[in-house]
Specification:
The complex is a heterodimer of chains A (111) and B (114).
Chain A: E1 3-5, E2 9-13, E3 18-25, E4 29-37, E5 44-49, E6 53-57, E7 60-65, E8 70-75, E9 84-92, E10 100-101, E11 105-110
Parallel strand pairs in A: 2-11
Antiparallel strand pairs in A: 1-3, 3-8, 4-5, 4-9, 6-7, 7-8, 9-10, 9-11
Chain B: E1 5-7, E2 10-13, E3 19-24, E4 31-37, E5 43-50, E6 53-56, E7 65-68, E8 75-79, E9 88-95, E10 104-105, E11 109-113
Parallel strand pairs in B: 2-11
Antiparallel strand pairs in B: 1-3, 3-8, 4-5, 4-9, 5-6, 7-8, 9-10, 9-11
The chains are: A mainly beta (111), B mainly beta (114).
Chain lengths: 111, 114
């Protein structure tokens, strides 16, 4: 089976750095996605990791370790607008179109 | 290039009525996916369609729910005889292919059953 775990909620301070973890138990997958979702809005794509390692994209970076079944999303120089839910999803090997989603981590940014 | 368009954005239905949600994929995209998101939960896959074909409906309840993507016009998710538990956000997404491509989401349709 496949299971994706993320912390339910995190709080961080404006200007700081926060790391949102995602652990998964799956027999294998093509890649791992991170999406951002503001309340009442659609998810928007942040990153897609296929290979192990860190992918940096501006203030956001995503890391994947297949051997450890672990990914994280790193947000730097936090801004108030970063308050949102962050969803981790995997694209399983046996389905090249389905995404299996975590429940998301609600990130609250305080001034 | 318009994004994925969904309508209505908000829909209120009484128990027992029908809800019909529409989705026009992004231009050039021939793959459409429907997801449901219950309050405080992650997205759950419902159905994957290509033009005139349902490829995978394994995530869709067997009763009352149906989906289509006709040759002409938008994809439609239809919920018959709605119940309170159907209240959720329904997101449509599209992609140009299925090979690890990013999928793009519409703004969602919020269904409230009263």
């Amino acid at each position: 089976g496949q299971n994706i775990d993320q912390p339910t909620e995190m709080t961080a301070t404006e200007g700081a750095i926060v790391q949102i973890n995602c652990t998964y138990q799956t027999s294998g997958f093509n890649g791992l996605f991170w999406y951002q979702q503001h309340a009442g809005e659609a998810p928007t794509f942040l990153s897609y990791n296929v290979l192990d390692g860190l992918e940096e994209k501006g203030r956001f970076s995503s890391f994947l370790s297949r051997s450890k079944g672990y990914s994280y999303l790193l947000l730097k120089e936090l801004q108030m607008k970063d308050s949102a839910s962050y969803l981790c999803a995997v694209n399983p090997l046996d389905s090249n179109y389905q995404l299996i989603w975590g429940a998301g981590t609600k990130l609250i940014i305080k001034p | 290039n318009a994004g994925v368009m969904q309508n209505p954005r908000h829909l209120v239905r009484r128990r027992g009525q029908e809800a019909r949600l529409r989705c026009s994929p992004m231009k050039g995209h021939s793959h459409v996916y429907w997801y449901r998101q219950l309050p405080e939960e992650g997205l759950k896959f419902m159905v994957y369609l290509q033009k005139e074909n349902i490829i995978d409906e394994s995530g869709m309840p067997k009763e009352r729910f149906s989906a289509e993507f006709p040759k002409e016009g938008p994809s439609i998710l239809r919920i018959q005889q709605v119940v309170r538990g159907d209240s959720a956000a329904y997101f449509c997404a599209s992609s140009p292919s299925t090979s690890g491509n990013t999928i793009y989401f519409g703004e969602g349709s919020w269904l409230t059953v009263v």
